[in-house]
Amino acid sequence: MSNLVDFSQPSLYYALGHILFNPIFWNTVARAEYKNKILTKLAGGNAYRGTYGLAIVIFTLGLTRDYLYHTALGNQPTHPFFEQYIIQITAVLLFLTGNTLVLSSMWALGVTGTYLGDYFGILMKERVTGFPFNVCDNPMYIGSTCTFLATALWYKSPAGVLLTAVVYVVYKIALTFEEPFTAKIYATKDNKKN
Prior knowledge:
6 helices; globular; mainly alpha
């Protein structure tokens, strides 16, 4: 395995740490906001400003994570298996698919829907069911995972494939916390209407 992944490289652990940190951070902060309205208070009582502030932080953390991921791949060994034409075509298709899912999700949800506005009390009028949500339930997470894998394949990196597996598992775990909590938020909204 050591000829596939160089575990002595610190950049591998920086990327891994950031991959683990991001969803823990945004879930922790969002729940604290829902319970105590900390960010809304810091934003002068304006939930929209609080959401936009969190959006900037989450977006920046995503850029940092991606930078560390690319740096880690650059410091890792490549493998000739990934030089096959079909693998490189797959990488391109995964990259296009992943980015289409992520960007179209952001477009459909808007800033407040994408960046946890529901935890701030900014609720969507109804569930988004159009593209890409009619293709899969969690297009942002699926799209992001596809993009990580595409990058790993493109750079011929077994370490990238390993890190992508971690991304997939972390997103699956995050969903076990996020989906029921978001459902609870909207159930509370529906109960208040009745």
